[in-house]
Amino acid sequence: MSLYFYLPLICIVVLAAFMTVIWSIARTIKNNSIVDVFWAFNFAIIAAIIYTVANGFYERKLLVCSLALLWSLRLGTYLTIRVGSHIKVEEGRYKQLREEWASNLHFKFFLFFQMQGLSNVFLAIPYFIIALNPEPQLSILEYIGATMWLLCIIGEGMSDFQLAQFKKNPANKGKVCSVGLWNYSRHPNYFFQCMIWVSVFIFALSSPYGYIAIVCPLVIAYLIFKVTGIPMTEEQSLRSKGEAYRQYQQTTSVFVPWFKKTI
pTM value? Predict the structure, then answer.
């Protein structure tokens, strides 16, 4: 059996079992927000499986697994702190789902948790492709992709840290965060998140079937721009901050960090 099939299958089985445990914990504590935390940490589990099972060029496999692990632990730790700060209070979108799924609540959330695990494996397609590449040297595209990936992890971390520090100050309650990277983009965290997947695609291009990895940044961009990212975040910001956020929208780039507009 080809490892191109076998490796993702192992990940699916492991994450299905793991997310069943997490669903059980969420049901016990009555807070499904923890799914976000473990969605992030699931990439660390996938990286560990790939490192153990994949048989591609060792230095390439080590590099992709290290970057995947670094990103997973950074994002997972950030989300742990965020969700853990209000562990007894479920986040709004999960409260909404709880109301919508009231007729068969536990089963629907079980399926939701399983789908999160499947989405992890789907987004890890480039990791599998890269780690199974036997070519015994790294290409220029792989160096470019890895460097860009690392810089984007740092950028995403900086934007999350700046927002967290802003929110920590009681004097900023109800105000719009426009410090640091947030002065140049309304959503720098989403920008760097999207660019991480672009860099993974660039990294994968030198490997057999690497072009398939294009689906990952496309899916992430669709979710950010059309589904759970920018639209929901901006709607909530307009409800909570009103005119201050409307002015912020008029002067600040929605996605790509750029200079302020004058109004």
Answer: 0.91
